[in-house]
Automatic annotation (TrEMBL):
Transmembrane residue ranges: none
Domain Beta-hexosaminidase bacterial type N-terminal: 42-169
CDD domains, per database record: GH20_SpHex_like
Coiled-coil segments: none
Protein known as: beta-N-acetylhexosaminidase
Family matches, as PANTHER family: BETA-HEXOSAMINIDASE, BETA-N-ACETYLHEXOSAMINIDASE
The reaction(s) this protein catalyses: Hydrolysis of terminal non-reducing N-acetyl-D-hexosamine residues in N-acetyl-beta-D-hexosaminides
Residues in Glycoside hydrolase family 20 catalytic domain copies: 172-340, 348-489
Assigned EC number: 3.2.1.52
UniProt cross-references to Pfam families, sorted A to Z: Glyco_hydro_20, Glyco_hydro_20b
Amino acid sequence: MGTVGRVRLIRPAVALVTALSLITVTASASRPPERPVIALTDVLPAVAEASPAPGDGFRLTSGTVITASGAAAPVAGRLAEALRPGTGFPLPVVADSGARAIALVLEPGHPDEGYRLDIGPAGVTLRATRPAGLFAGVQTLRQLLPPEIESDAPQRRRWVLPAGTIVDAPRYAYRGAMLDLARHFHEPAEIRRYLDQLSRFKINHLHLHLSDDQGWRIRIDSWPKLTEVGGAPGTGVGGAGGGFLTKDDYRELVRYAADRFITIVPEIDMPGHVNAAQVAYPELTCDGVAPRPRTDMRVGYSSLCVSADVTYRFAEDVIRELAEMTPGPYLHVGGDEAMSTPHGSYLTFQKRVLPLVRKYGKIPYGWHEIAQSPSAAGAVIQFWGRERNSPSVATAVAAGSRVVLSPANRSYLDMKYDMLTPGGLAWAGYIEVRTAYDWDPARLLSDVPESAILGVEAPLWSETLRDSGDIDFLAFPRLVAIAELGWSPRAAHDWSSFRARLGAYGPRWIRDGVGFHRSPQINWS
């Protein structure tokens, strides 16, 4: 265990990735300018309904414009930014035009985040009730054009969208990813890069794990030593993860995510996983003695002092400051692996802390252990277990709680793909792409009805991560499997279709410089 902190993921050499990219570009240049039109169903995640039409689709030309007004205009601007590099076309965004157009329209009548995309030779119309629905439709539209359209240099190609109609909406309201900043700190630029990739697959929540035994990664003004000590150099697993987010950093990430219709969910883990906080403030221990800093990967040894008033002053200050700078509805209070907190004390803690989240206008959110507390009624419960039933979660659901599913043996992105995977962990088993894909959220917990499922989330813990390349390698392509489970209807769940669509997406990741795992289960283009 002592060497784990020095483990780094071994990704394909930069030279190899560059060579592959050059091969792709060279091959593209040697092909005829026309290629087969991508089908309406060749999209990740799978669309709900697709009705191809005979005849020609819509051809982008130098005269094409994008029309949008009001709240639709920013989404139209992002579409134009994505399509200009490869086409070399100006693609101006205008309020109205008689020219050949891609029109983005806000109108009533569509499901929340849903959209309708109509494509014909005379034009394209994308309709939704909310800007989030338009943004989801834009992600679909981008995938209906060849990967080269978003390259850095204009391509000599005729860009054609397939004719027909797509009507689409998400299966679940919550489709999330989690990134652990505590075990290893990831800089804001790395988080923004991850947000960019998440948004391509209609992920709409990013859960940031901001504190743990090894580090504290968010500035709290009323307790400044949390980051001065818990975010100092030498913190993190193996001592290789120093750093923290200032409040300005955090607010900018919230804004950046919101521009991509992603909600940030902050997490402060307690009453366990608090060693870093106790190193900074020994009064948070029952004996007033600071524990030693920890850079190993063990869990379950730390606990706040449940009988001390200072514990609740600390908890309230942290919750209040986080709530003030978090516009999203959720605030995650952890609650997992509190093995050093006696059961009665754990219930006492949750009885006092969960109402504090509501006091500051947020919905309490926690790992499924909080379901043991009657105070968790109405909270969001994040199930991370491997069992097929959970009586405490079922009881919380009966009292009004909703559930986000993150089964460790299906959705934990830090698990190895197989026994030869460099980096990553294996305590929940190996998770190849098909393992991540082949489950139904509605049937995971036998004692929880689908009506209580808010959605799914794919956590990525950072014990063996060090940089964006490590994030890429473990998150992709498995995160796309979880995204499809969250967005696409149950009827669209088909491994053969998914693996074909995933394999065809590979050139887009190569273009974006994403060092994804080339799973042998997938025939990569």
